[in-house]
Structures are given as C-alpha cells and as structure tokens.
Design a protein that fits this description.
The longest helix has 17 residues, at about 150-165. By secondary structure, this protein is of the alpha+beta class. A 9-stranded mixed β-sheet has the order 1-2-8-7-6-3-4-5-9, sandwiched between helices. It is globular. It contains 4 helices and 9 strands.
C-alpha cells in the first residue's frame, strides 16, 4: 500500500547538471534567481501575477516586461503601483491576453521567468506550475530551473511570440 512520505523525507529540490527541480520553497528559489547580480533583465509570462515579493524584486531590475492575463484585478491599485515602477525591456512593460469571451479568446497558461544578463542574453529560465500569485505558496506546485543558455533562449523566443499577440496594458 502506498504510504505518503513525510515532508522531511521527500526530496524538496533536485539538481542535475544545469536543471534544478523544486517542489518546496518555490518563491524563495525564484527570488534567489531574480535577485542574483547576473540577472539584470527579466521577462515574465504568467496568469494571475500578484506575488508581491516577486513584483517588488522585478521593479529593481534594469528592465522587465510582463505578459499576464486580463482578470478583474489586473488594474487594481496595488498591481498598478508596482507595474508603473517597472522599466520596460520590450516596448511595453506590461502586456495582457484573455480579455473577452468565447472561442476566439486567447488562453495563456504558461508560467515562466527568463533571466537575462547585462548583454540582454538569456541564460536562465524558470518554468512550472507555480502561478506567481499570492496564494500559490499554499498550493502543491513545482518549478524547473534551467541554467542553460540554449534552453533559456527557447523560452525567450516563445516570450517574443506571445508578446507579439498580446495587447498593451502599460
């Protein structure tokens, strides 16, 4: 019979080569990557972006662009105060998808952060189920951290593709 492991017994983080898989302390692991001195620019793809700690750190970057979905809280004062502090990496600092209804509505469920160095070269990508929202820390979530320029560049290309079909918020 399957017996679940206690939290202390299970693997919380596993690294192999340039990939790290994280199941616990996800916010902490994301923050470690985006506050690192090498991370000068950030690009973010995520629905429901409301994690205050991550948002504050993104404001400190030389530039950042976020693509999120259009939800009823997107233009809340709290989010707009932070979004207005971000210096844009692309032409716009915040873009959105999903406004509207029906078959033609774009759905974005991608959740990733791309870290770029001072030369605007992607070197790290973070991807997984984590929503970058305030409530995600209590969910069962995971992320993979790819510290590989080729993989990070794939995420960068996907970011640019989605940017081109997004609408400007700020």
């Amino acid at each position: 019979i399957f017996k679940p492991m206690e939290k202390e017994q299970r693997m919380k983080k596993h690294s192999e080569g340039d990939v790290t898989i994280v199941f616990d302390d996800i916010e902490k692991n994301i923050l470690q990557k985006i506050v690192a001195p090498k991370c000068v620019y950030c690009l973010v793809l995520c629905p429901y972006f409301s994690n205050a700690k991550i948002m504050i750190e993104l404001c400190k970057k030389k530039a950042c662009t976020i693509i999120t979905i259009y939800d009823k809280n997107l233009k809340s004062k709290k989010r707009m105060d932070v979004f207005n502090k971000i210096k844009p990496f692309m032409a716009n600092r915040v873009m959105y998808l999903n406004k509207g209804r029906g078959k033609t509505r774009s759905i974005m469920h991608s959740k990733s952060i791309i870290c770029l160095d001072e030369n605007k070269i992607p070197y790290c990508a973070i991807n997984g189920s984590y929503n970058f929202s305030g409530g995600s820390s209590t969910n069962i979530e995971n992320i993979a951290i790819y510290e590989n320029m080729n993989i990070a560049n794939f995420f960068f290309q996907e970011f640019k593709r989605i940017y081109n079909i997004s609408k400007k918020l700020l």
